[in-house]
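Input sequence (392 aa), recorded before submission:
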Amino acid sequence: MSIELATSAKPHTHGAGEVPPKTKSQLLRSFEPADFPALTGREEDWRFTPIKRLAGLDSEGTAPAVKAAQYAIRSLPEGVSAEAVGKDDERLGSILTPFDRPSAVAWANSEKALLVAVAPEAAVAEPVWIDVTGGGLDGATWAHTYLEVGHHADVTVIVRHTGQARLGDNVEISVGDGAHLRLVVVAEWDRESTHVEHQKARLGKDAKLDHIAVTLGGDLVRQYLSIDYAGRGGSVDALGLYFADAGQHLEQRQLVDHSVPDCRSNVNYRGALQGATAHTVWVGDVLIQDKATGTDTYEINRNLVLSDGARADSVPNLEIETGEIVGAGHASTTGRFDEEHLFYLQSRGIPEPEARRLVVKGFFNEILQKVPDEALREELTELVVARLDAGA
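Predicted structure, C-alpha cell format:
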C-alpha cells in the first residue's frame, strides 16, 4: 500500500498561538510560522545545530520539491487501517502544537497526513511497517503522520526512512487507555539528506509506549521527541542509538512532561562517533510538575568517541516541582574507546578489528536487544558493524 502526501508552499494555519507554562521548550506554541522569529543559531535550543545546513526546512517560503517523499505500508494486519486525510481532520493538531519554527513550517506546508489507526482491543501479531522513501534533494518537502492506538490495543509499528531527502515532518502519537505501542523509528538516509522531525506522544491511563530511535544516515538529522500524559499509570521507555561518521550532525532531543500523578519514564540513549567533524547532540529534558506526585523517572546518555576530531554534546536536564515522587535522576558520560578492553580481548587471541567490533556491539547491545523485530535487530547490528569497519 503506497500513500503519497502532497505538500504546499503556502502556509496553512490551524488554531491560534498560546503560551503554555513552565518549560523552556514551550515558551511559545503556534501553528503559524510567522509567530516564530527566524533562527540564528544563538537560541538555547538551536545553539548546537548548524543552521546553514537545515536546507530551507526552517524557511516559511521554501518551495516544495517536485517529487514528495513516498510513504508505503508493506501490509495492514487485521485491526489496522491506513489512509491519507486532509488537514481539516479534527485529530490533526490535537496532540502536537509546534513549539519551534521548522515544526510550524512543516505543519503549514503539508496538505495531507498519513493516518494509521489501530482498533480498540486489537492484539496485532505482526509489525506494521511504514517505509518512507525520500523524494530527492532538489527542494524541501513536508509531511505529517498521525498514529492512533485504540484503548487496550497492542501493536508494533516500524518506520524506516531511506533514500535522499530534504524532509521536515511532524508525527502525532495517541496511545489510548491501557494500550501498548512499540514504535521503532529508523533514520537510514543517504549521506546528503536532511531531516528535521518533531514527534509528540500522548499516553492515556495505564498506557505504555516503548519508543526506539535508531539514527545512522543523513548529513543533518534532528529529531525531537516530546511526551505527555493524559491519565495515571502511563509508562514510557524511550531508547535511542546513533552512530555519526565524519561530517555528520545527528541530534536527538527529548522532553518528557510529567503533569499527572503515578506515571513513569525511562530515557536511555547511546551514541558512537568516528571521523573528523562527526558531531552528535543529545539533550534530555524531564519536567515533573507540582501535581505529578508518585512520578518515577530516570534518563541517561552514553557516548563512545572512536577517533580524534569527533564531538559529542550531552545535556541532561531535570526540573522537579514536587518532592512527593518515587524517584528521579539523570546521568551522562562521554569517553574514548577503552584500550583496556581491547588489550584484554587481544591477549586472549582475538584480532584487534574483531575486538573493536565486540566492544562496540556490547556498547549498543542493551538498545539493540529491545528492537522487537528479530530480522530488523540483526540488520541494524550489521549496519553498526559495517559503519565501524568503514572508519577503521
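Checked by second reader. The CA atoms of residues 191 and 218 lie 4 Å apart.
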